[in-house]
Amino acid sequence: MKAKLLSIICLFACFTAFGQKKILDHPDFEIWNTIQGQRISRNGELILYSLEKGEADNHFKLKDSKGALVFSHERSENGRFDFNSDYVFFTIKPWQSDVRELKRQKTKKSDMPTDTLAIYSVKDKRLVKIPHVRGYKTPAKWGGYLAYQLTDDAVKVNGKEKKASAKNGYHVVLRNLKTGKQDTLKYVTDYKFANEGEKLAFVTTGLATVQSPGVYIQELNTAEPKAIFTADKGKYAQMTISNSGERLAFVADLDTTKALVRPNALYSWKEGMDRAEKVVDQVSAPQGYRVSSDGNISYSKDESKLFFGLATPPVLQDTSLIDEEIVNVEVWTYDEPRLYTVQELQVANDKRKSYLTAIHLDKKNKLVQLATKEYPSASFGNEGNANLVLVNTSLPYQLQSQWQGGTYRDYALVNVSTGETKMAMKEIRGGVIFSPSAKYAFGYSSADSTWFTYNVATGKRQNLTLGKIFYNELNDSPNFPSSYGSAGWTKDDERFLVYDRYDIWSFNPENGQGERLTKGRESGTAYRYVRLDNEARFIDPKGKWLLTTFNDANKHSGYYTYNARNGRGNQLLTGPFNYGRPVKAQDDDHVMFTKQSFEVFPDIHYADLTFESPTQISNANPQQSEYNWGTAELVHWMSLDGDQLSGMLIKPENFDPNKKYPMIVNFYEKSSNGLFSHRPPAAGRSTISYSFYTSRGYVIFNPDVNYRIGYPGESALNSVIPGVTSLVEKGFIDKDNIGVQGHSWGGYQIAYLVTKTDIFKAAEAGAPVPNMISAYGGIRWWTGLSRQFQYEHTQSRIGGTPWEYPARFIENSPIFNMDKVNTPLLIMHNDADGHVPWYQGIEMFTALRRLGKPSWFLNYNGEPHWPLKRQNRLDFNIRMAQFFDYYLKGAPKPVWMERGVPALEKGINQGLELMDKR
Q1: Which of 100, 123, 271, 798 fits a disulfide with 791 by CB distance 3.0 to 4.6 angstroms?
Q2: Hey, what domains does the chain have and what are their CATH numbers?
Q3: Peptidase S9 prolyl oligopeptidase catalytic domain location, by residue (predicted)?
Q4: What is the pLDDT of residues 681-723, one digit of tens each?
C-alpha cells in the first residue's frame, strides 16, 4: 500500500512540475497508434490504412483525397483495393481481449473465433461481411471478381462426412463483385487467378459423383469449370497459370504406393487441349535427376518457355532399422565446404533443392537443363524471354566464407536453347544479375570496389568505376567497402545509373564513359531516384524524375524534380523532416507520402508531383499534444582521436537550460542521420524509448562513433566520452547522474566503457560480448555460421585471428578488467539468442558476481537476441526504467533489485513493486 501511494505521489509531482502536461508512463504504450498497410487506389482518389492501437486491435480507415473519412471499421486490417478501385477488401479480426479471455477459459482451438472477410463497394457504399474466411485472392491486372477460402465446412459423401482440411482442401467461393453471384468450388487445395486473362485455375480433391479429383480451369464468363486433368488418386504441386491464362502447368504424383522416391511428373496444358499432357517424368528426366515438387514453376513473358525444377534423388533411411540400431552422431570435418552447424540448419532447404530447367513449348517440349550440381543457382533475363540464363556457384569458396564474411562466386552463361555453358566471370565477390533487356550482366565487385558490366554477346567485361570513389567513403571495418547502390537502367539497356555518396551518374555500359547528372557533392546533398511506377522496367532518359534529397550536414531531407532531357532540376520540398519514399497512384499523378521528426508523427499526406499544398490524410496520435514530449537537435564535438563527430541530443519539451538533468547515453555505431526520426512511446525490444524518458525529465544523448581497425573498444571510448563531457560543460547535465544503455554491439561497447571510466552512474548492457576470444570461436545459432568473420572482417573490427593479434583480442575484451568496474550494471541476455551466445552475458555477470559488484541479469526464457513477446518487452522496459530511476533520479528501489526473483516465484511474483524510500 505504501509503495503504491508513493508511486502516485511521485507521478503527481512530475505531472505538476511539467506545466500540467501529462507524463508518459508504461500504460500509455497501449493508446499509441501506428499506421499499417497504407495503400493508394490506382485512380488516386482513395487511400486506405489501419491504425494499430498499442500492438493490439486495428481500426481500418478509408479516406478520399481531401482527407475526408469515407468508411471505417473497427478491429480490421489488411486492406486492399480491387484492380478497378471499385471495391475495397479487408479482414475483420476478433477482439484481442475476447481471444485472450477465451484462452483463459481453455477454449478449444476449433471453437475460437475466426476472421471475417469484408467487401466494401465504393460506389454503393455497401458493406458485405463473409465469416469464417481463411484467406482470399484477387486478380492482379483486372477486376470484378474475388475468390475466398472458407475455414471449415463439411459435405456428406455417400453418407459419410468429408471434412475440409489441409489434406482434403477447403471450399473456395468465386464471387462476381458486380452481381454478387457466387459459385462454390469444393475441397480446393490450391487456386490462382491469371494475371491478365480472366481465368481461375484450381486443384480439388473432388466430391464423389459430383466432381472428380484433379486440376480445373474456369473462364469467368462461363458457368462451369473445365477439367484439364483428373485422376482417382494424386497429389498436385506448384500449379501455375500463365499471365494470359492460356497455359497451365503442374507437378503430379499419381502413385498410390508408399514409395520413398516419389514418381513426380510435370504436366502442361494449352488453350484448346482437352487434357494436360505429361511433359517430363522419372523416365525422361536427365540422368541423375527427377522432377521436383518443390521447385517453382513459371512461364517466360512470351509464354514460349516453361521453367521448372529438377532435383537429385533423396538420401534414404533404411526403414528396416529400429531406433536402438540407428547411430546419431555428428561428424564434423575440417575441410568440408559448409560448417556442420550450417548444414544442419539447411537440411530442409537441401531436401527441397531443385535446379532450374526449361521446356520449350514451341519446340515440341524440348527440355534443356540450365542449373546443375556444378552451377546450382540460376536466374533468367528479360522476364524469361532471353536466350541465356546466368548461373553461378559458390561451392569452391564456401570454406573460406566461414572467416571472410562474404562469398565469392563463379558465373557462367547457359544457352536456353542448347544448354551450352560459357564461363563468364570467376571469383566475384558480390552479386551479378542481368540488365532488364539481358544485354549485359552487371554488378558491384567488392574485392576491387568497382561497378562493372559484362556484354553477354561479346564477352567483354567493362569496369565502370575502377579508380573512382563509388564505394562507401566512410568504411571503418576491416572489410571491402560496400557500394552506394544503383538507380537502374534506361530503355534498351543504353545507360546504367549508379550512385556515389552524393550524386547520380550515368554510364555507357559498353565503354565505361560516365557523366554526373546531379550536383550534390558541392553541398553535401545525396540525390536518389524514386521509382514511381512499380511495373516500369526502365528509367525514361528524357522524362521528369522524382528524386529524394538528404543533406549530410543538417540532416534535412526532401523531394527534387529532375528533367533528364536538359539536366535541370528544382527542389520541391526540403526541411527539418525525414520525408518518406512517395507511393504513386498507378493511373494518376498523385502520391501519398510521410514526413516525420522527433516531434511529428509520420502521418500520411497526399499531393500531386509538385508537392504544393499537400493534404494530411491521417491523424494517428492527436493525444501526443497532451504529453510532455521532447525536441531533437544535432550536437558536435571533437573525439580524442581528433575527429569531428556528431550526435543527437534529445531534450524534454519544457527544457530549462538553468536546470540540471539526468542523462542517458544510448548508442550503437552512427545514428545521427536519424535525427528527424519519430520515436513513439513503445515497449522496445532492446533500447530505451526516447520519448518515454524525455517526457520523464531525462536528456538522451546518442553519439556517433568513429572506429579504428583493431581497437573498437578504445574507439568507442575516444568518441563517446568526449561527447559526454562536452555536454556536461554546457551546464545543464547533472554530471553525477549519467547512465548508459545499449544492446548487442552497443552492449559490448558499454561493457568495455565501464572498465575504463566511472563517468556513468548506472549502465544497461544487452547481449554483450565481454570475451572476444571465446566469442570468436562461437556459433551464430540462427544461421549456424561461425563467428570468426565478425572479428576478422566485419563489425567487431579486430582485423585478424587471435593467433595473429592476441593482444588486440585481450585489450578489447572487458572480461580481463572486470575488477575495474565501479558502475552498477543491468545485463539482459536471453537463452535462445541466435546472434550472440548467451554464455557471453553469463561470463560477464558471474565475473561481476565473483567480485561483489552490483549487477543484475535478465534472461527471458526462450526469447532470441531480444525479447519479442509483448509481455516480455514491457517487463524489460519497466525494469530498465526502474533501474535508471533508482540510480539517476533517486527513486525507490524495486523489490527485484533488492532480492531478485527466486526460481520458485518465476512467473508468479515479478518483484516490480517499489520499496519504501529510506
Answers
A1: 798
A2: 231-314+344-369 (no CATH), 646-905 (3.40.50.1820)
A3: 716-889
A4: 999 999 999 999 999 999 999 999 999 999 999 999 999 999 9
